[in-house]
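Escalated from tier 1: S-adenosylmethionine holo job.
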Amino acid sequence: MNIKQWIQKSTIKLSNIHSAQLDSKLLIMYVLKINKEYIIFHEKKKLTCKEIKHLKKLLIRRYLLEPIAYITKKKEFWSLNFHISKYTLIPRPDTEILVEKAIFLLGNKKATILDLGTGCGNIAISIASMNNNYFVTGVDINKNAILMAKYNSKKLHINNTTFFISNWFSNIKKKFHMIVSNPPYINKKEFKNRNKELSFEPKIALYSPNMGLGYINIIINNAKKYLHSKGWIIIEHGFQQKNQVKQILKKKGFLHVQSYKDYGGNYRITIGNKPYIQYNKHINYNS
Ligand SMILES: C[S@@+](CC[C@H](N)C(=O)[O-])C[C@H]1O[C@@H](n2cnc3c(N)ncnc32)[C@H](O)[C@@H]1O
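Tier 2 regenerated the structure:
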């Protein structure tokens, strides 16, 4: 059997999946360690028995709806290739709007950025990759996520990042010019049994108590303490959570609160600005 024939056969086998042909190509690229162009020019190349056996195993995993990114251990985000594992969420294109907005607000000035719940480091590394004036700290409660983020940063030759374990702000000791976060925000009750592919992702990366708003509340309620005056917060949320997130930010005194849509047309992020505080040495701020 040659490359073309295997792609045709596996596309039919994966007919339960809308991206059957693309997934078949991704599997063959992964097993043969080849790129898209190679497939085009070498479609008649014969597969070895060992390759066919390996492909068969992976095809079954995909047929059982394991996400292709977990099978190939890779996912592209912000045009960078990230390594992922079963301990990290698969980066979503929906999140790229957060990176875009962060860079727009930061401009070219020197800035420190904190990424809460960094996962494989996709947000932190993407922001850091855009400007050497940025220094990005990524934290996560999951040790394996931190190891993966460090690995990705090194592999992509991004030096203006640091990653460590923290339960949200528990190990944060300084202030930042910007806080970004894509926290877990799915309401578990709503999603139970709805999406088989989600069941492969770590629950700690997906679900949040209080109708999905529990962690967003924790982050916003503590953010001001860790932001410099005039610092920004950008938070990702579910497309139906826009109004609640705006309300939480306004209640905490953030200014310029505004939501933005992702490239799929859904409201996905909300931003807020910590007010400028002019300290008066004659006022006792602790009273
Ligand atoms: C939705 S994922 C986001 C991953 C990555 N930033 C992205 O955008 O693809 C949420 C992340 O928050 C982390 N997380 C969950 N609870 C946390 C906590 N209490 N403190 C810090 N991180 C936490 C999870 O381990 C997971 O990596």
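The chain has a mean pLDDT of 94.
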